[in-house]
Amino acid sequence: MQFIVAYDRPKMTLVAFKSFPDSACEEALQCKVQLEHDYANSSEVEVAYFESASEQMLRLTHSRYFDTLAKLADNVAESA
């Protein structure tokens, strides 16, 4: 699976999340380019492309895009 994420860093929120099957590589990359264009004037929004076996795995490996600030703080406290 392929995933495109647009993330507002200061607000710590997703502004876009799209998933694509492996067979739709061109469509996924076009989506990424469009989002980069849409947010070109915003230094606060990060657009990223990921490949992962599943959305669940992506959420585990890149949790900062999906977790709330409170959950991230809890994770840090638990690991200390």
SSE layout and pairing:
Elements: E1 2-8, E2 13-20, H1 25-38, E3 45-51, H2 55-61, H3 69-79
Antiparallel strand pairs: 1-2, 1-3
Number of helices: 3
Report how far apart the termini are.
Answer: 33 Å
- Strand and helix order: EEHEHH
Structural class: alpha+beta
The gross shape turns out to be flat
Largest sheet: 3 strands, antiparallel
Q: If you average the pLDDT, what whole number results? A: 88
Radius of gyration in whole Å, from Cα? Answer: 14 Å
- Widest sheet: strand order? 2-1-3
Pick out the low-confidence regions. Answer: none
Percent helix: 40-55%
Strand content: 25-35%
Secondary structure tally: strands = 3
Description:
- The protein has helices spanning 25-38, 55-61, 69-79, and strands spanning 2-8, 13-20, 45-51.
- It has 80 residues and is of the alpha+beta class.
- The protein has a three-stranded antiparallel beta sheet, covered by helices on one side.
- The protein starts with a strand and ends with a helix.
- The mean pLDDT is 88.
Keywords:
3 helices, 80 residues, three-stranded antiparallel beta sheet, 28% strand, 3 strands, alpha+beta, single chain
Quick summary:
It is built from 3 helices and 3 strands. The chain is α+β, with helices and mostly antiparallel strands.
